[in-house]
Write a structure and sequence with these properties.
The chain is of the alpha+beta class and 289 residues long. Helix content is 16%, strand content 41%. It has 2 domains: 76 residues, Immunoglobulins (Immunoglobulin-like), CATH 2.60.40.10; 174 residues, Glucose Permease (Domain IIA) (Distorted Sandwich). It binds zinc ion. Zinc ion binds next to loops.
Length: 289
């Protein structure tokens, strides 16, 4: 009799809360199921499950930043362009407690191909350039490792230009018939001098000249979310400056490894370059803009 009552009560709670149990038989609140594709990011809202802000959010063995809003936590989770296509879970961990916060299903995405011809010296780098690239990489690594834990923004990401996209995110490239790579940003047609706005509110963390992207501005939006604006003819902001969405940050150009005037827009989330246009569409819906 007692056993039956226990089963009935368990069934009742499952029906009421749509809960599931973990391997220890503990009842968990149902985690949201989210679909994602390689090179995309999702803003996910999930239950606090009684855990404090000191808890860890771990997705595919990576620790993600998250923040509190009302009775929920929010995080931006990215799936690598080089995804192995397996589904994954984000776990919220604190002390000995561990729950599934979000579950991801990875869908297929096809990326087209293009052939490009560029200055050979920008591919087979001379020693001097190799040293320069290595130095710049160190500076960039430090920048990307020091994002703040709270978001600077409370609005959707906005695509910086509405002009023709000359090269989409993720396109597979062959340079000078032999060197293969992939384009992990979006290129917008832009004449030299075209005004370039910030995609969202954030803090400028880099404004300077880089070997590959020429004159470049990088903005930290918090939560390990960065936007990058490359090949500029001029930067109009300085490191440390807070910019609002839409603020002028530079002028378009063709500096660095570029085959003509355009804006290269990169979005990096938790160390992965993701599709900025997709992020703009996703966040536009979520912020109801
Ligand atoms: Zn580009």
């Amino acid at each position: 009799m007692f056993r039956n009552q226990k089963i009935i009560s368990l069934l009742f709670s499952l029906a009421l809360f749509g809960c599931s149990t973990n391997s220890n038989g503990k009842i968990l609140s149902k985690a949201p199921q989210v679909e994602i594709r390689p090179g995309e990011a999702r803003r996910v809202v999930f239950d606090k499950n009684g855990m404090s802000e000191k808890a860890e959010l771990v997705c595919r063995d990576n620790k993600y930043k998250f923040y509190s809003e009302g009775d929920k936590y929010i995080a931006y989770v990215a799936e690598s362009y080089f995804s192995d296509m397996s589904g994954f879970k984000c776990l919220l961990k604190e002390a000995r407690k561990e729950v599934v916060a979000v579950e991801f299903k990875v869908d297929k995405k096809q990326f087209p191909e293009e052939k490009l011809k560029v200055d050979g010296r920008k591919i087979n780098l001379r020693k001097k350039d190799l040293l320069r690239v290595a130095k710049e990489q160190e500076v960039l690594n430090n920048i990307y490792a020091s994002s703040v834990s709270t978001p600077y923004f409370q609005t959707a990401f906005k695509v910086p230009l509405n002009s023709y996209v000359t090269s989409i995110y993720g396109i597979r490239r062959t340079y000078n018939k032999q060197h293969k790579g992939q384009h992990l940003g979006t290129d917008f047609r832009a004449p030299v001098g075209e005004k370039i706005p910030a995609a969202n509110r954030g803090k400028v963390v880099f404004s300077g000249d880089l070997f590959y992207t020429g004159w470049t501005v990088i903005i930290d939006h918090g939560l390990d979310i960065f936007t990058v604006y490359g090949h500029l003819s001029k930067t109009l902001v300085e490191s440390g400056q807070i910019v609002q969405r839409g603020d002028l940050i530079g002028l378009a150009g063709s500096t660095g490894r570029s085959s003509g005037p355009h804006l290269h827009w990169g979005v990096k989330i938790h160390g992965q370059y993701i599709d900025g246009i997709d992020l703009a569409e996703q966040t536009k819906k979520q912020f109801k803009e």
